[in-house]
Design a protein that fits this description.
The chain has a five-stranded mixed sheet with strand order 6-5-7-9-8. A hairpin with a 4-residue loop joins strand 8 and strand 9. The protein has 23 helices and nine strands. The protein has four domains: about 150 residues, no CATH class; about 100 residues, no CATH class; about 140 residues, no CATH class; about 130 residues, no CATH class. By secondary structure, the chain is of the alpha/beta class. Helix 2 crosses helix 3. About 55% of the residues lie in helices and about 5% in strands.
């Protein structure tokens, strides 16, 4: 039996070469985004730009707060008068703060958003390659498997929801934990803590999923030597460092959830968004080689989590190969068991255990898990672990095809040489690459962000002629409950740098009660009930779209007209600014 090769030493030029390869691939799969980095955002599978706009806005807001010394970080200028509005959804804190210098230097939230998207895809591949090489896999296999992780279907389905794209935090955390098990010292304890914190600050949900997987399967790596003072102390240091880094975020989220009464995820909603077994048997886009029985979802944005036939076959081969090697057996069990766990957790309330659904059981045991709305996103862990096992499968194939002699003999295998070795190696590389890119998303659709130049006139007027604590309401108000109904609200959010004032409008994964109450009162606007609702929330000025709410329409309602005084008309942007008396 072939013995695993020792990991190769890390060379800077190799890392840079791999990073360049992955960055080129990321740019290619996001094309034509590289041609409009500062002016548009990619839609992914989103039909409307609501979520991409909100994601880009979060990059501006966090850059703005960094420039202000993080003062008022959680008091985002949306959903007035609700406190802590920025803690109501994923913030992608680490990505936004990394890109803050770009946003502050250029004034383009879209550029910061898009650069981080490219960086995230690049690091998805690079961290995977480095991890697998550390486990002793060959460089070619590791690099190709990195391509597979870069091309994971679910992150590309969720490109519009940027925090769901970076899986590199998960991979880097697993790498750090593995390194710690080999040399459980203080330096690696610091690395573990920083990687775990980074995972949380990139995506709260992914960090929670990773914690559950490690808690459930981490025992596979436990050894008696870890009970010594030095390993235990370094592990405590890792936990303390991770907790210290994420504590400000966790505390703000906890406080907001407690203060915002009713912030719960109903089981009916979770059940609706949870996966079903059939969702793991279809793909979002066509496979390069489509076997029978694996259909393509009618819409790519639908739940479709099959990672690809070639990858699944290689993963099964890799599982068998890993279970047969002493130095791979624990990782084979971990990736295999983690895949099954992720599959089960993605089903959520649909999976019954002893008469109780799995979701309810976990919610009882794990505080905070009940706040997770889309448990189907566990599918990313499933896909990731399948591809990592596929890397094992590729390594077993390479060893058999090209031959590799372990130390002390050839174990009955005769390495291919000369021309035969070259041909076999090229054929293997082509086959491996085809398996890892067997599901390719179509060319990206871009959506231009709102133009600051178009809205400059009314925005500057508001800055110069209203107090700093003025509160704006943008009308007409959203009257529906779908994400498409909030696209204009997300566009208004992106224009906050233009007018610099707080607004009652907004978009996030959770809408606070004051916003929902005002929304009901403004459903038939213009009405006096709507005006009273605006007053009750402290609105001082109203910005109305001329096409939907022209000035003559307001004049048709004398009671409403008495409460509103037009102050500025901007025919270029198509809006009127009113004072609310």
């Amino acid at each position: 039996m072939l013995q695993p090769r020792p990991s190769a030493p890390t060379r800077l030029r190799d890392v840079l070469a791999e990073a360049l390869l992955y960055s080129f691939l990321a740019a290619a799969v996001l094309w034509p985004l590289p041609t409009a980095m500062a002016t548009a955002v990619p839609m992914g599978t989103e039909k409307v730009a609501t979520v991409p706009f909100a994601m880009a806005w979060s990059f501006w807001w966090q850059a703005d707060r960094l420039a202000a010394g993080l003062q008022g970080y959680w008091q985002a200028p949306i959903f007035f008068p609700t406190d802590g509005t920025f803690a109501l959804s994923e913030t992608n804190t680490l990505g936004s703060l990394l890109m803050a210098p770009v946003v502050l230097a250029t004034g383009s939230a879209a550029l910061g958003h898009n650069l981080f998207l490219l960086l995230a895809l690049t690091l998805n591949g690079l961290t995977t390659s480095r991890f697998l090489q550390a486990l002793g896999l060959g460089r070619l296999v590791a690099v190709v498997t990195g391509v597979g992780v870069l091309m994971l279907p679910l992150p590309h389905q969720e490109i519009g929801v940027l925090p769901l794209v970076p899986v590199f935090g998960i991979v880097a955390s697993l790498h750090a934990l593995w390194s710690w098990t080999r040399d459980p010292g203080w330096r690696l304890g610091v690395r573990v803590g920083l990687c775990l914190a980074a995972t949380y600050l990139l995506c709260f949900q992914y960090a929670l999923f990773l914690a559950i997987v490690v808690a459930a399967l981490g025992w596979l790596f436990l050894e008696k030597r870890f009970l010594a003072p030095r390993p235990l102390g370094s592990l405590v240091l890792a936990g303390a460092l991770a907790a210290g880094c994420v504590a400000p975020v966790v505390l703000a989220q906890t406080r907001t959830v407690k203060e915002e009464a009713g912030f719960v995820r109903k089981e009916s909603k979770v059940r609706k968004l949870a996966a079903k077994p059939r969702h793991f048997a279809r793909t979002p886009w066509k496979q390069a080689v489509a076997p029978p029985g694996i259909p393509v979802a009618k819409k790519p944005g639908w739940k479709a989590f099959f990672p690809g036939s070639g990858r699944v076959l290689l993963a099964l081969l890799g599982l068998v190969w890993g279970l047969g090697l002493p130095r791979r057996v624990r990782w084979a069990w971990f990736f295999g068991g983690g895949s099954l766990l992720a599959y089960a957790m993605a089903l959520g309330p649909w999976l019954e255990v002893g008469g109780n659904n799995l979701w309810a059981l976990v919610v009882e045991v794990l505080p905070g898990y009940g706040k997770v709305r889309s448990v189907n996103r566990w599918a990313v862990i499933f896909q990731l672990f399948v591809v990592l096992l596929a890397g094992f499968g590729l390594q077993s194939l390479q060893d058999r095809l090209t031959g590799r002699a372990p130390s002390g003999g050839d174990a009955g295998l005769h390495p291919a040489r000369g021309r035969r070795r070259l041909i076999t190696g090229v054929a293997f590389a082509v086959l491996a690459l085809l398996c890892m890119v067997e599901i390719v998303p179509p060319q990206q659709v871009l959506r231009d962000v709102p133009s600051k130049q178009t809205h400059a006139a009314w925005g500057e007027w508001v800055r110069q002629n209203t107090p700093h604590d003025a509160v704006l309401a943008f009308l007409p108000f959203s009257d529906g409950g779908n994400v498409a109904d909030y696209e204009q609200d997300a566009a208004w959010m992106l224009l906050t740098p233009v007018h610099g004032r707080t607004m009652v409008n907004g978009y996030s994964s959770y809408f606070p009660k004051p916003f929902r109450a005002l929304k009901k009162k403004l459903k038939e606007f213009p009405t006096i009930d709507g005006v009273d609702g605006l007053r009750e929330l402290g609105v001082t000025h109203v910005v109305m779209e001329q096409e939907a709410l022209p000035e003559h329409l307001i004049a048709d309602y004398p009671v409403v007209e008495e409460a509103l005084t037009i102050l500025f008309r901007d025919d270029v942007a198509g809006v009127d600014v009113y004072a609310l008396d």
